[in-house]
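Troubleshooting log. The previous run stalled partway through. Resubmitting the same two chains, unchanged.
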Amino acid sequence: MKFLADGTITSPLGFVAGASSCGLKKNGALDMMLFSSDRPCHAAAVFTRNQVAAAPVIVDRRTLADNDSAIHAVVGNSGNANACTGALGLSNAEAMQTAVAAALGCEANQVLVLSTGVIGVQLPMEKINAGITMAVGDLSADHGMQAAQAIMTTDTVPKHAAVRVELPGGTVTIGGMSKGSGMIHPDMATMFGVHTTDAVIEADVLDQCLRTAVDQSYNRISVDGDTSTNDTVLILANGANGVTVDDARSRELFQEALNKLFVYLAQQIVRDGEGASKFVEINVAGTENDQTAHQIANTIATSALVKTAFAGSDANWGRILAAAGRAGVPFEQEKTALWVGVAGPRELQLLVGGTPTAYLEKDAAAVFAEPEFKIWFELDQGSGKATVWTSDLTHDYVSINADYRS
Amino acid sequence: MKFLADGTITSPLGFVAGASSCGLKKNGALDMMLFSSDRPCHAAAVFTRNQVAAAPVIVDRRTLADNDSAIHAVVGNSGNANACTGALGLSNAEAMQTAVAAALGCEANQVLVLSTGVIGVQLPMEKINAGITMAVGDLSADHGMQAAQAIMTTDTVPKHAAVRVELPGGTVTIGGMSKGSGMIHPDMATMFGVHTTDAVIEADVLDQCLRTAVDQSYNRISVDGDTSTNDTVLILANGANGVTVDDARSRELFQEALNKLFVYLAQQIVRDGEGASKFVEINVAGTENDQTAHQIANTIATSALVKTAFAGSDANWGRILAAAGRAGVPFEQEKTALWVGVAGPRELQLLVGGTPTAYLEKDAAAVFAEPEFKIWFELDQGSGKATVWTSDLTHDYVSINADYRS
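Second attempt completed without errors. Output:
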C-alpha cells in the first residue's frame, strides 16, 4: 500500500473536480465545489444521527435510497449549512441537484449535495447557481485540492490524501478529503469525509466497507463533543480502472487501504481542531466489550476538565479517572491502571490499583508538554478495547466559538 | 416562609461551627471546618454516582448505613480531596472521624467527613489533626460563615443561607452552605451541599425530603459537565426546637422551604461557576416525559458550542437546536419552537416549526448580552418538562482549569 499525502479526490482515475468563489464566505475564499465521474458510480454514505438533519442530508438520504448505483457528481458549498431552513431549504437543496444535473447532462437523482456553515439562513440561490456554473467551468483532474479548500469553514488547512493499493487484479486508488474543526464528536461530527475510488465494487459491498472504516476513524474523533446537523461521509466508486473488489482477499486489502485513508483524514480533523494545540490518543482496554471501552474513552475525550488540563500541559490524571468514573460503565477503582507516553505503549505508569505510582511529576509533565501524546487506561473486566483521538480545550477554542458569527 | 440571605448552618437552634487554617491551602486561607449539634441528629445524604468515589464518600456511606439517627458532627477540609488514595486514604478518613469523636466526646460513627481539593495526594495527617483541634476550639453559634469559607476551593464567594418556615407546630429553621464551581454537572457535582435544621423529623422522612429537594436543585445545575469523586449533599436534623414534621401539611411546608434553600444554594454554585459571566436558565417542555426533557436540557446546558455562544453574547440558536438534536431523544424538527427572554416566559420567539421567525437579530442579541437570561425549547410530544441552570464557557474557565495545579 502506498500513501499519498498530496493525493486528492481526483487521484483515482476518471474523476474531475472544480471550485469557485460565489460570495457565501465573506472573505472571498473558495466556497463552492463540484466533482464528477466520467461514468456512473456506485455510492455509499453515512449521515449525522442528529435529530435536526440539514436539508442536504435529507435530500441525499432520499437520493441514495432511490439510486446508489449510478451517482455522477457531488456538489458542495461552505458558508451556509442549509439547516433549519424548512421546506424552502429542501427545495433549494433539490435546486442544487437540478442545476448540476443540467450542466453535466445527467439526472437530478444522480447528484449528491453537501452544505456546511451557518445554520438557519436560506441559501442565496442566485449566488449558488452562479457558483455552480463557475465550478463546472473549472472541472479538471488537477483540481482536487481546490475542492478540499472549498469545503473548509473554520478549518485552517485543507485535508486530503490518497492511497494506492495492489489488489490481486491490479492497482486501485482511493482518494479523499475531509473538513471540520468544531462540532467534532464520535458518531459523526460537523464534518465531511468525501472519498472516491476507481475500483469496481458493488454498492452493498462498498456500503459495508464504508461503515467498517467509519467506525474506526470518523467515529473515533472528538474536538468538542458536539455533533452537527450536516455530517456526511460518502464514497463514490466509478470502476474506471476495471479492477474488481469482490473476493475475500481483495476486500481485505481494499478495506485496509480505506481504513488507513479514513483514519488519516479523521485525525487531520482533530489536529486542525478549533484552537487545538495538542493531539491526544486515548486508549481504553480491559472492559467487558469494545462498546463500553469506547464509552469510557469518549467521556475522557470530551471532558472539559481533562481537555483544559491538556491545554495547560498538566498531568492531572485525577480528572482522567474522574471522567472515566462518570462514563456510565461500572468498574472497581481499585483495579484501574493508567499509563501515558509519547511513542511506545505504556511508557510511564501513573496509576496502579487506582492509586498513584511513585512516578516523578517532572516525567509526567514532560509527556503532557508534548504536542502529541497517548494515554492508556485499563480495567480488568475483559478484553474490550477502544482508541479515540482528541484535542485540548484552549483559549483559542473559546475565542473562535464566542465570536463565530461576529 | 422567610428567606435569610445571611443565614448559615448555625442558624437553626443547637448547632455550632468552627474553622481553622491548617496549611492545606497554599494561601493560608481557612481549610478545615467542623460543625456539631448539642444533641444527636437524624441524618440523610446523597453522594456522587461516579465509579471513582473518594475515601470520605466511602466512609460516610458506611457510617450512615450503620447510623443515620445519631450523627453528632461533620468535619470537612478543602485543599485535598482524599480521592484515589487507596487503603491509606480510607484509614485517614477514618482517623478524621476518630479525632473529632475524641475531641467532642462521641463515637467515631457519629461523625461524617467531607474532603475536597486535589485528587491523588494523601492527606497530611499531622496538619489535619492540628486543624481539627483548632476548629474544635473555634466552635461557636456565630461561626457558620467561617465554615462556609473553609470548604471553598476555586469558589470566589462563600455560599450560605437559611430559611425560616411556620409549621402548624411552630417555627422551624433550615440552614445550609454549598461549595463548588468546577466539575459541576447534574447528578451531583464537585460540590457539597451541607444543611442543618432544628426540626424533629424521622430519618426516613428526612431522606425523602432531601432526595426530592436535590432532584429540583443540585441535580439541575451544570458548569462543565464533569462530575466529581467527592460530591455530597447532606442534612442533619437535631430536633432542638421540638417542632415535629410528620403530618402531610407540615411535610409539605418543610419540603417547600427545603426546595427553596436548595435551589438558592445550587444556583449560587452556577453563578460562581469557574470563569462564568452569565447565568442561563434552560427550560424544555413538550417532551414525552420529564426525564427526556431533562436529557435535552442537559445536553444544551453542557454543549461547548452553546456555552461559548453565551460567552460571546451570540444568539446562535442553531447550536441550541443542534445540541437538542443529539440528546438521544427522537423528535421532529418541524415541530420545534424556541423562545428567549430575560424576565417573563417566552418573550422573544426565534423559531417556529423548526425554522427562524422574522425576529430582529438586535433583539435576540440584546437578550444574550444580559448577564442572566432564559431559554424555552418546546416540542409537541407530551407534557414533560424540565429546567436546568448553566453558565457560559469563557476564557477564564480555560485559564482557571489549565493552570489549576500550577
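Takeaways: Confidence is low (pLDDT under 50) at residues 185-189 of chain B. Chain B touches chain A through 65 residues (CB under 8 Å).
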